[in-house]
């Protein structure tokens, strides 16, 4: 739900215009436009090409709805539309092609949403309301853009405690660092994020996977489960007989929304998901690799660090040795560090009593261990995440341009709010 690149109201600019190819689309659009308080006479016959022709000789509206169903080359035509639109125009498109790749390409080109025909009045109403909210939102100048720390927590082996570390870091970011934080648990069938926080997981993550085109700020607000005023969880408890079929697009869109709604996000990334969706790591600027000081842990830490260097070169990595028992190490810390060719950044001591207490109370291990040696280690982990994540006052660079015309001209606005109801199949 990123804010668009905002311009002033502008003399002579309509609030809304629409270009529809057929009578049914035009009728539904007029009806919803009237509900929004917009001028129904601004709904014209003719699709995307007619919009390009008309707007080449007149001012573009603040919110533009175009029907692409007669377009042979949608992406090329959208680029043509960008050439005649003024900066700040919020563009919504509709069409008959149910293709998730087209949907993503269109969003990547700078439009706010793509809806699948025949139009649904409720979906259209939600989309227009999102566009209006984006237009009315306060202007975000470059210096006002908040930084976002995106942290991926990955365990090198099962049982090393990566999920415990992920929930603890999310809690620390929300409570100690005072950053509104999203926790995403991608173990779809056996995740423990909700269990750790004493919450019901809900259906939010499953709904996102099944309907990635619905992911927007409103979806985030409804789907995420609140652990506190500053910590929200998105997880699943999918039936073990039900494989979750996805190309990973929903996870990328979720992180895009997290970047604008939250000050930080933590993803609990199971190894099999990392292998299946390697492209997700480009969304994260901090990686926390959780291991144990064993021979197998050393081997898999070497492999994972090598993988991250190749697939996520932008990521700053923190190596965390978990459940450390000083007098019960399989190999020495020195030998372990020589094997992985780098130092262990954080060592979390094993404390069975505190772990049991956290489980009984439904709290994170970091919360119940605040006054212990383990708590001090977690505090140091938080400090390193904040430092490497750019929380020293620097601002993360936006990954894409803002509005449609801003995308082509390299404007430094943020992405318009994404959302919508295209039923693109993942």
From TrEMBL:
InterPro entries found in the cross-reference section:
CheY-like_superfamily, P-loop_NTPase, ParA/MinD_ATPase
Q: Which Gene3D superfamilies match?
A: 3.40.50.2300, P-loop containing nucleotide triphosphate hydrolases
**What superkingdom heads the lineage?**
Bacteria
Q: Alphabetically list the UniProt keywords.
A: ATP-binding, Nucleotide-binding
The cellular component terms of Gene Ontology attached to this UniProt record, alphabetical and capped at eight, are: cytoplasmic side of plasma membrane; cytosol
> Which GO terms fall under molecular function for this chain's record?
ATP binding; ATP hydrolysis activity
Spell out the SUPFAM superfamilies in the cross-references: CheY-like, P-loop containing nucleoside triphosphate hydrolases
UniProt-listed GO biological process terms = negative regulation of cell division
Q: Point out the signal peptide segment.
A: none
Q: What is this protein called?
A: Pilus assembly protein CpaE
Taxonomic lineage: Bacteria, Pseudomonadati, Pseudomonadota, Alphaproteobacteria, Sphingomonadales
């Amino acid at each position: 739900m990123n804010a668009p690149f905002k311009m002033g109201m502008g003399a002579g600019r309509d609030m809304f215009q629409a270009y529809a190819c057929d009578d049914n689309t035009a009728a539904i659009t007029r009806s919803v436009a009237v509900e929004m308080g917009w001028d129904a006479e601004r709904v014209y016959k003719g699709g995307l090409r007619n919009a390009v022709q008309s707007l080449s000789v007149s001012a573009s509206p603040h919110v533009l709805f175009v029907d692409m169903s007669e377009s042979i080359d949608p992406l090329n035509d959208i680029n043509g539309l960008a050439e005649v639109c003024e900066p700040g125009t919020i563009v919504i498109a509709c069409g008959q092609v149910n293709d998730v790749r087209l949907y993503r390409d269109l969003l990547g080109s700078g439009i706010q949403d793509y809806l699948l025909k025949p139009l649904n009045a409720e979906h259209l109403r939600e989309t227009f309301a999102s566009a209006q909210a984006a237009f009315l939102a306060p202007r975000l100048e470059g210096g006002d853009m908040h930084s976002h720390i995106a942290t991926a927590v990955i365990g090198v082996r099962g049982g090393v405690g990566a999920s415990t570390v992920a929930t603890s870091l999310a809690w620390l970011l929300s409570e100690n660092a005072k950053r509104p934080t999203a926790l995403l648990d991608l173990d779809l069938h056996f995740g423990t994020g909700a269990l750790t926080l004493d919450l019901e997981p809900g259906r939010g993550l499953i709904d996102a996977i099944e309907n990635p085109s619905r992911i927007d700020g409103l979806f985030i607000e409804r789907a995420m489960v609140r652990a506190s005023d500053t910590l929200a969880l998105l997880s699943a408890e999918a039936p073990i007989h039900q494989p979750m079929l996805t190309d990973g697009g929903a996870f990328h869109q979720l992180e895009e929304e997290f970047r604008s709604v939250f000050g930080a996000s933590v993803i609990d990334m199971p190894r099999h998901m990392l292998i299946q969706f390697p492209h997700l790591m480009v969304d994260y600027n901090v990686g926390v690799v959780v291991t144990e000081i064993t021979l197998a842990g050393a081997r898999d830490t070497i492999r994972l660090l090598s993988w991250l260097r190749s697939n996520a070169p932008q990521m700053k990595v923190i190596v965390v040795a978990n459940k450390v028992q000083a007098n019960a190490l399989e190999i020495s810390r020195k030998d372990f560090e020589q094997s992985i060719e780098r130092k262990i950044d954080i060592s979390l001591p094993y404390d069975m009593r505190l772990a049991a207490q956290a489980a009984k109370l439904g709290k994170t291990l970091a919360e119940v261990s605040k006054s212990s040696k383990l708590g001090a280690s977690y505090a140091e982990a938080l400090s390193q995440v904040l430092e490497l994540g750019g929380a020293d006052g620097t601002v993360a660079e936006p990954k894409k341009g803002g509005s449609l015309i801003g995308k082509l001209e390299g404007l430094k606005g943020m992405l318009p709010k994404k959302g919508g109801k295209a039923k693109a199949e993942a």
